[in-house]
Design a protein that fits this description.
Helix content: 10-25%
Radius of gyration: 17 Å
Distance between the termini: 42 Å
Strand order of the largest sheet: 1-3-2
Structural class: alpha/beta
Number of strands: 8
Shape: globular
Number of helices: 2
C-alpha cells in the first residue's frame, strides 16, 4: 500500500564560504565584501585581512551552525541587493567578530563562537584577522542579524 502522506525533502543547509582575494577585487579601502543568493553567502576578504587557516576554521564552524539550523537565511530572492544597504537599526539580534589574544583560545584554535539568545560573537585569533575586517563584518552583522535577514532559532526557555 502506498503511503499517501509525502514527506518534504529537507533543504540543504546554507553554505557560508570565506575567500581570500586580491585587494583589487574589492571596493577601494574595504577589507571584505559579501555576496548572497538563496542557499549561499560568500565573504570575499582582501589579502592580509585574514589567513587561509582562519577561513577554513570559520567555514567548518559555520557549517555546524547552519546544519543545526541555529541560524537560518531568509530568502534574498525578492531583494538580491539587501546586503548593500546600511542597517536599519531594528536590533533583532547581534552578530559580531572580535579579535582576542592567542592566550584566550585553545592551542591551534583560531575562532570560537559564543552564542546565546539573540547574540552570536565570534572570537578570532588576533594574528589571523585584521581590526578592519572585524569592524566591517560586525557592520554586516548589524544588517544581517540586526534587521532579520538571517534568523536565529534559539531554543526557547520555559
Amino acid at each position: 500500500m502506498n503511503n499517501p502522506v509525502k514527506t518534504a525533502k529537507a533543504a540543504a543547509p546554507v553554505q557560508i564560504q570565506f575567500r581570500v582575494v586580491p585587494h583589487d577585487e574589492l571596493p577601494d579601502g574595504t577589507a571584505v565584501a559579501l555576496s548572497e543568493v538563496d542557499g549561499l553567502i560568500v565573504a570575499w576578504i582582501g589579502e592580509g585581512h585574514a589567513t587561509l587557516e582562519l577561513c577554513t576554521q570559520l567555514e567548518d564552524l559555520h557549517r555546524t551552525v547552519t546544519a543545526q539550523e541555529r541560524w537560518v537565511q531568509t530568502s534574498p530572492a525578492s531583494d538580491p541587493h539587501r546586503l548593500e544597504r546600511p542597517a536599519e537599526g531594528l536590533g533583532i539580534a547581534h552578530v559580531a567578530w572580535e579579535r582576542v589574544s592567542a592566550d584566550v583560545l585553545p592551542d591551534g584554535v583560531l575562532a570560537v563562537p559564543v552564542e546565546r539568545d539573540r547574540i552570536l560573537v565570534w572570537l578570532l585569533h588576533e594574528e589571523h584577522a585584521s581590526e578592519q575586517l572585524c569592524a566591517e563584518v560586525s557592520e554586516y552583522g548589524r544588517r544581517i542579524a540586526g534587521d532579520g535577514l538571517w534568523e536565529q532559532r534559539w531554543p526557547s526557555t520555559p
